[in-house]
Amino acid sequence: MNVLEELKLFYRDWTEEKGFIGCSENGALIPYVAVKKTEKPVILAQYAIHAREYITTYLAMMQAQDFLRNGKRGTVYFIPAANPDGISEAIFTDGNYKANARMVDLNVNFDARWGTGAENVRQKSAENYIGAFPFSESETRALRDFTLMVMPQATVSYHSKGEEIYWEFFQSPSALSRDFRFAKAASVATGYPLKNAGRSAGGYKDWCVEKLGIPAITIEVGSDLLSHPIGKEHATEIFRKNDKLFAALTEIL
Ligand SMILES: [Zn+2]
Asked: What are 205-251's pLDDT values in tens digits?
């Protein structure tokens, strides 16, 4: 059973709030599940926006079940597979594929200094293509609209690999200390160091920081020694490093 099939069963069996944030370019539904312990704070976590990083979809399912069992405070929305078409491509044809079905890299398609990233490209590609304009893709629009609907106090984007956390994106001085404190809590909870992303732009995290003014972090899971796509056999060890994250973050918000 592949990861998308496992996600279908997980979704079917989820007894708490669940639904779809929208559709992919090929018409695949993009599911979310929610765990509500208290109304606030609200955290939105999205996974596998880069196709080949679908190890994070397994992580999402494990974290959601764990937070349902053990969480004490807050609400977490989990979007385990933000890029279902790309994940299919990565499973069945090209294990290194990152983009969506239209060869747009969704994590450079958000309206946050769009097109200014050091690695951006302007033609269809397995990675780094920014798209024709910001939010040109149905997946990025779905994430945008769902985020605006639930209005989280913070967001978490899971990627692979490298075991590090990115959090900066042109914050104002006052937001900088708040966001550093948030990122530092994630670093303490996971053991992953904070890192400067260099000149990236147009990412979901970037958009959350710049346009919504909330703390937003990107967590890269999986050792750099592993190759893409990281196999399911690594899901448990990755989960163990990330199992305290939402308890820690809902505590400090
Ligand atoms: Zn990524």
From this structure: 999 999 999 999 999 999 999 999 999 999 999 999 999 999 999 99
pLDDT digits (tens, 9 = 90+) for 13-45: 999 999 999 999 999 999 999 999 999 999 999
The tokens 């308890």 sit on which residue? 247
Predicted TM-score (pTM) above 0.85:
yes
φ and ψ of 131, to 5 deg: 85, 175
Give 38 Cα–ligand 1 centroid separation in angstroms: 30
CB neighbour burial string for 42-52, b if at least 16 within 10 angstroms, e if fewer? bbbbbbbbbbb
Cβ–Cβ < 8 Å for 83, 50? yes
Q: Which residues surround ligand 1, an ion (CB under 5 A)?
A: 50, 53, 159
Span from the CA of 149 to the centroid of ligand 1 (angstroms):
24
Helix then strand then coil, % of the chain, to nearest 5: 40, 20, 40
Which pLDDT band, with edges at 50, 70 and 90, does 198 fall under?
Answer: confident
Of the candidates 47, 105, 119, the one whose C-alpha atom is nearest the C-alpha of residue 76 is 47
Distance from the alpha carbon of residue 52 to the mean position of ligand 1, in angstroms: 8
Q: How far is the CA of 8 from the centre of ligand 1 (A)?
A: 22
Q: Which helix (H) or strand (E) holds 58?
A: helix 55-70
